[in-house]
Amino acid sequence: MPHPLLADPWVAAKIDKAVEKYGKTWSQAQIDAFREQMAWTLATHPDVSRTLEVARPSVIDTSGERTVGGEVESRDAAKEADRKAAKK
Q1: Domain encompassing residue 67
Q2: Is there a single domain that holds both residue 3 and residue 38?
Q3: Based on the structure, what is the number of domains in the chain?
Q4: What is the DSSP letter of 45?
């Protein structure tokens, strides 16, 4: 059963970003284990858990828009940009 912190989209995104660079060298089991370990550490380490509380936004934007170079990019434009980047 995944750690409850992994159900938080903001935390999961931060952990996934940290694990991203290992995607080509680690097996899926290794990635899953590392994500669990990171979530456990974020939840139990006194300094890290306090830092997480401060860093986590109180409201998560679910609009699907993201800021790119100071301009707001729509969800559709973001998906298209992601598709183009994946082809490279």
Answers
A1: 62-88
A2: yes
A3: 2
A4: -
